Amino acid sequence: MKVQLIQPEKDPGYGNNSRSGCYLPLGLLSIANYLKKKDSSLDIEVLDGELISNQEIISQLKENSIVGIETKALNYESALEIARTAKEKNSKVVLGGVYASALPQIIIDKRKDLIDHVVVGYGEQPFKQILKGTKKKIIYNPRPSFDLVPLIDRSFVDVEKYISNFQEKHPSWNYKGTNIFTHMGCINDCLFCSRSGPSKPFYRNPAHVWQEARYLKDQYGVDYLVDFSDTLTQNIRSLEKLVKAKPTDLNPAFHVFSTAQGINEKSIGLLKELNVKHVFIGVETGDPILAKGISKGNNFSPDKTIEAVKMLTDYGINITPSFVLGLPGENKETLERTLKIAEQIKEISNFEEIFCCELIPFPGSRAFNMICPNPQTDSFDPDKLKQEWIGKYCHASFEKIREVVNEILGLGDYTITIRKS
Ligand code: B12
Ligand code: SF4
């Protein structure tokens, strides 16, 4: 049986950023590993629209296969384009990923002829059920089961290509970097967050994380691990277990995500032992009142963020600050405060990488439910959602907010934003 697992190219108009083409589609690779382990005769391919165009993907679609497509708000049109050709080739089409997980019923209702199944949540076991011929249209699997795939074998894709893109896009970091994950899930409930993970973190077995680190070093010379999990410091005991399990002969540099609230003397000590070089930290806004409305933890505030940035900098850990502009009630003064805090953080830490974007009410987020409580379509353009949101919830124009986003991005060398060009 043929299985093609695909991350579509971003939809037309959505451009690249400093992360594009650098990181492997680990979700699809995890599914590929699991299926192969269960049935080694399966012919499995992973195609990634971060490296090849949608047309190239379409030209590689096979007859009579099972096509699994990862969806995000920014690639859903491309996903449907792939699905159309896959159907013409008599294949079964399965959608998964954050976007399909947020809108499963409406996708099944609106795309009867195109989509056979939608998987909500983690795809390994549901995909197996699909291969076995389940009749269920929507399959729910909200919790990760990391032990199903203790180590993700990357050989389904051209790992060297991602690593060389990483090196080209981050020349001053001087590392051979790639992505891994240590846990999934987050205790916070930020207004704009659309990750589909559980509301408490599930950590991988630390021994498996280190086994994977060793495999990446031995096989590909990787010395920098970008942990794209939700927020590593949210469970200090699990972080401690990861650090304790570190083998004495392995010392890759790490890039991790944390909230400001998770940064304290204890967690910094552990991050240092882990050899963390960068912490991606959600600053979001410089305005204390807007910060309170995000639900990023009780203590979240611009002051708390500055405190965390100072501590990290004092301990020699670099940061990647992240800002979301267009929070409810955003106005000229709050935007000025955010620009000011961004400049202050630059002053303190001299960061290189920065993320800044207007709030996108992605399907799956609380913000989306506020503007679209009863969706009648499965097709949403993120740029239009942004504009609709700003018109409804902000006291500043889209143009003014875009201007400040650009000013903030101007503070970094490696910039990440999400917009149509
Ligand atoms: C790493 C990452 C990336 C990497 C790697 C992408 C990848 N495919 O893995 C890079 C940097 C390339 C990337 C790019 C983008 N990303 Co991204 N990314 C993430 C991040 C931080 C972690 C994903 C991850 O590795 N998880 C670990 C793996 C093991 O789990 P997983 O990917 O969720 O996969 C499991 C399930 O989702 C499911 N599943 C996934 N796909 C499929 C497919 C099928 C068929 C099935 C059955 C199941 C299934 O099964 C998997 C295994 O259990 C998430 C945030 C998050 N916490 O989810 C954002 C996130 C998914 N990305 C996001 C965005 C916006 C983007 C970009 C559009 C940004 C941009 N402008 O460049 C691009 C789009 C690229 C593209 N061509 O589509 C948003 C999506 C928002 C939305 N609702 O649409 C998220 C939620 C972050 C956010 N809140 O902003 N991303
Ligand atoms: S802290 Fe990060 S992962 Fe957690 S809810 Fe907020 S944005 Fe999402």
Label this structure with key terms.
single chain; 421 residues; alpha/beta; 7-stranded parallel sheet; 6-stranded parallel sheet; 16 helices; binds cobalamin; binds iron/sulfur cluster
Short description:
This protein is 39% helix and 18% strand. By secondary structure, the protein is an alpha/beta fold.
How would you portray this structure in words?
The protein has 16 helices and 15 strands. It has 421 residues and is an alpha/beta fold. The strands form three sheets. Strands 7-10-11-12-13-14-15 form a seven-stranded parallel beta sheet. A six-stranded parallel beta sheet has the order 2-1-3-4-5-6, with helices on both faces. A two-stranded antiparallel ribbon has the order 8-9. It starts with a strand and ends in a 5-residue tail after the last strand. The mean pLDDT is 97. Iron/sulfur cluster (SF4) binds at residues 186, 188-190, 193, 195, 230-231, 259, 282, 296.
Give the number of helices: 16
Question: What is the approximate shape?
Answer: globular
Provide the spatial order of strands within the biggest beta sheet: 7-10-11-12-13-14-15
Termini separation comes to 40 Å
Structural class: alpha/beta
In total, the number of strands is: 15
Strand content: 15-25%
Low-confidence stretches: none
The bound ligands are:
cobalamin, iron/sulfur cluster
Please give the radius of gyration in angstroms.
21 Å
The biggest beta sheet is recorded as: 7 strands, parallel
Helix amount: 25-40%
Mean pLDDT across all amino acids: 97
